[in-house]
Amino acid sequence: MDRRQLKQTAKKTLKQHYLLLTALCFTAAILGAEFLSLPTTDKLYYQSLIESFQNISTSGFKAISMAFYSLIGASSSSSISTQVYYHILGMFSSRNIWVILSSLAGILGSLLVCIFFKQTLCIILRRMFLEARSYEKVPVQHVFFLNAAKKWFRASIALLRTSIYYLLWCLTIVGGVIKHYSYLFVPYILAENPNMSGEQAVRLSRDMMNGHKKEAFFIDLSMIGWHLLNLLTFGLAGIFYVNAYQTSVFAEYYAAIRAEEKEEQIANIDLLNDTYLFAKADSDTLAAAYKTVKMDTMYIRDTKEPLQGARRFFAEALSIWTGNHKQRKVYQGVSNLSYQLSLDQDALDGRQYPSRLSPSYTKENIHYDGNLNEQRAYTAENLILIFFIGSVLGWIFKCLDYLVFTNACVNAGMFHGPWVPMYGLMGILCVTLLTKLRKKPVAEFIGCLIIAAAVLLCSSYYLQAMYGMAWWDFSTHIISFGGRVSLQNTIYSAFVCMFFIHFILPALDQWLSRRKTGILYIIDAILIVLLIIDAVYSFTNPNTAGVLKETGAVIQSLIL
Prior knowledge:
By secondary structure, this protein is an all-alpha fold. The protein is built from 25 helices and 2 strands. It is globular, with a radius of gyration of 25 Å.
């Protein structure tokens, strides 16, 4: 195996798809799925790290374990191991039944998120890298390939089984190192064929790596310089290059070993049946699979009715639909189909992975990617629901912060209800004001940064002027503005907004659009009335449960 050739090919792939692949790895890192945890700018973190080591001799096991978790960078709230650790610590340090129950719920919730979301991202990530090495274009909607194939649950359970096997082998110390390389190809195998069971994937990975473990170890060893650079830069080098480069190298390695084992016809190698993930189809095969492209083109030409005046401005500049629902259904349907047609044309021309030739493809997915088109015009009732969903999710994240770091259930925010409207407003502004930047991800991310900072700053000034209290304080962060806004938390906020706009909201809007409009109106009206009642009451009697008692308090908001 020529390592130099592998790395050169990996660099070429990364150069061609740099923005997409680094963004995917950044997503995996910020969500705690894999790679080095992102650095924190909170000075209290480093102070607590020093104090933990200073107190090891007097504070016993708790200080040792705190120092260990801080040292390995797992102190981020996105880390599954840290969340479980704090919940267990809370259970043993309190006799309050509610604290114990909330800790148990926290452990269960953390494990479910890890099993069905975080670890599954590892499969999705490798699927995208495998497509990137073979094709010029990789649609971002292909991150939902497991959902399209209806194999999300199966793939998650298969990877869980692998993780259990690996954990048991780690108890033998040496076995953990060996099995790391034996199971190296499991996520790649599931990325190619998500219909396989965990046992099948493990057995096939083990057979493929038979005689190649030493080779894989030396590939890892040859990149030790990049790993050191990543550590020295606290993960920043990984964000911009190392993580994507390393993943790209092993994607090439998997493709190379797969080709070798295909020639040798090892047992069960026929289960790796996604031929066009590694080789482009001929023009006749593509033409037969995408014969509906011409029909779709004719449908768009005959159905499309260009918008005029104010309706066009609101739809194309602000993502707001102002016409009737029947017209909107036609408009959004044509928009989705036009986007699907552009993807199908790329596949027909051999520039993109042909989803219709996938072994997991079903006829009902013929317009699946187009339905997830982020270029949308949202109706008023859907925007209102999106606002409340953002507000409630923001409240949940804030409450989880308090639960993780204080082992106490605290009603976050100044409102008494289960919402923090600041986050809903942030999301709505990003959805509407940045419509024209939707196809320019870098510019859109900068716009999300500006909006997130502005909302946080204005909210902080308002709350301080009205009540003389602070519900958050970032003064201990290295880069902050008067403790009201920090660079790190603003980046997190912008990332969450981008994630929802491009991945969650299209699917949510598609689902809401199939519901009866009258029911949505009723739900909106109820939520608005409840929020108004809460706002009126909270104006004179704000919820102070989450108020910081002093500047630089230990309770810090890590997810914004």
